Amino acid sequence: xxxxxxxxxxxxxxxxxxxxxxxxxxxxxxxxxxxxxxxxxxxxxxxxxxxxxxxxxxxxxxxxxxxxxxxxxxxxxxxxxxxxxxxxxxxxxxxxxxxxxxxxxxxxxxxxxxxxxxxxxxxxxxxxxxxxxxxxxxxx
Length: 140
What we know:
Layout: H1 2-5, E1 11-18, E2 23-30, H2 36-48, E3 55-61, H3 70-77, H4 83-86, E4 94-100, E5 107-111
Helix pairs in contact: 2-3
């Protein structure tokens, strides 16, 4: 499944988690070092199509943060990344993010060896652009 797909992938690795089911729905690696323009464009396209409030886990394996272009930076900002932490990356520098589409970072860190953890805010009906009479329970 998703776990196997992420083994030993260089670059920016992104796992998308369904906030209601709390299950990984997709995993993708973007090798910005090998193909910067293509990987940045694909990252931006994939983030653009994410559903509202999708939880996004981002981790850098090996290298690639230094190859983010403006399109890649804008895309990661849409899932809560801080411009200060994703700009001007250095070769083999680590990065990790727990974020949410159209939300703020739950946890984010950049450095030579990084780990992040955090508590996600509760899911609300407004996060899904639902009618006021609907409830999250009706989605289960």
